[in-house]
Specification:
mainly alpha, 17 helices, globular, 0% strand, 325 residues
Length: 325
């Protein structure tokens, strides 16, 4: 679990109400920097919080830290030790999400799915379910479920979940694009193309979604095996946002598919050097190491150098096994 993809991501202290939650400025700072060991130490005494709901929130953050460090049994034990008072407000959403997700890592997929669907139902049954924050949480849980169903080739269920999300927010280009990606993954190219055209009509002249549109066009080029055109689209993304790690990674892959392995390696190495915080994730490193294995006889030495650098700069939750050393 990477630092950039924390389940139930922390709310910025600027938007948190001091009357509702304890001071989260230090935990927020440590979490955004991926310093999960330090965060766990900082939260070593959640019982010091005066309000039960606050103690549950701090315990949830401790469980998140343990999960980020892949100490899944410890995280599950911590959650099992909590006994929310039925007379108090419901436990924090983060705690409930972790409780639902942890069985996936044991693995106990049926239990995880049961808990995730229960959580989704409870979110949708809330009287304030249309509040933007709860709609975001609804989309998060539904997206987790859809991703799991796609990974297990349960395409009809996954597509139904994503289509329902898109129908709830028909003018949301990000959710609509996810629907197109699901169609691509199951090979329904015509349906994906139709959704992409709809996304373009929804966005119209809104420049804030220019990179999303370019990435969508690039995917269509990849499906058509027009890798040169896809590279151009990703270059437009990178020009607009040099920290667009998705565009950087996919540009490198398109170069590799075009048999330009040298430039593909330069793209990923350059991204890691210029913006390690944005570009350093397991997917980028796996792809770079695969390219090293294809390009160099002595790829072990090159990967060892990369591994040493990762050890110095990576967040605590980075999975160093992705270098395959």
């Amino acid at each position: 679990m990477s630092a950039t993809s924390a389940p139930g991501s922390l709310q910025s202290p600027a938007t948190a109400s001091a009357a509702d939650v304890p001071d989260l400025s230090i935990p927020y700072d440590l979490a955004t920097r991926g310093q999960w060991q330090a965060l766990l130490a900082h939260l070593a005494h959640p019982a010091h919080a005066h309000h039960l709901h606050h103690r549950l929130l701090l315990s949830a953050l401790s469980a998140l830290s343990l999960a980020k460090l892949r100490r899944f049994p410890d995280a599950a034990a911590l959650l099992a030790s909590l006994h929310p008072d039925p007379g108090c407000p419901p436990p924090p959403f983060l705690l409930r999400l972790l409780h639902a997700l942890l069985p996936l890592f044991f693995p106990d997929r049926p239990l995880a799915l049961d808990r995730l669907y229960t959580l989704l139902s409870s979110v949708r049954a809330r009287p304030d379910a249309q509040h933007p924050e709860w709609r975001r949480r609804d989309a998060l849980v539904a997206s987790i479920l859809a991703s799991d169903h796609l990974a297990h080739r349960e395409f009809d269920v996954a597509l139904a979940l994503v289509a329902e999300l898109a129908a709830r927010e028909p003018n949301n280009p990000v959710l609509l694009s996810r629907l197109a990606y699901a169609h691509l993954q199951i090979g329904n190219l015509a349906a994906a193309s139709a959704v992409f055209r709809h996304v373009e009509s929804v966005v119209a002249d809104d420049s804030s979604h220019a990179n999303l549109l370019a990435r969508n066009r690039a995917l269509e080029c990849i499906v058509a095996k027009d890798y040169a055109a896809a590279v151009r689209e990703y270059e437009h993304c990178i020009e607009a946002d040099p920290a667009d790690a998705i565009a950087v990674n996919n540009k490198a892959l398109c170069l590799m598919y075009s048999r330009d392995l040298g430039d593909a390696i330069k793209v990923l190495e350059g991204a890691l050097e210029r913006m390690p915080t944005a570009a350093l994730n397991e997917t980028v490193v796996v792809n770079l190491c695969s390219m090293y294995e294809l390009a160099y006889v002595n790829h072990g030495d090159v990967k060892r150098t990369l591994t040493d650098w990762i050890t110095r700069v990576a967040p605590d939750d980075f999975d160093k096994s992705c270098t395959r050393m």
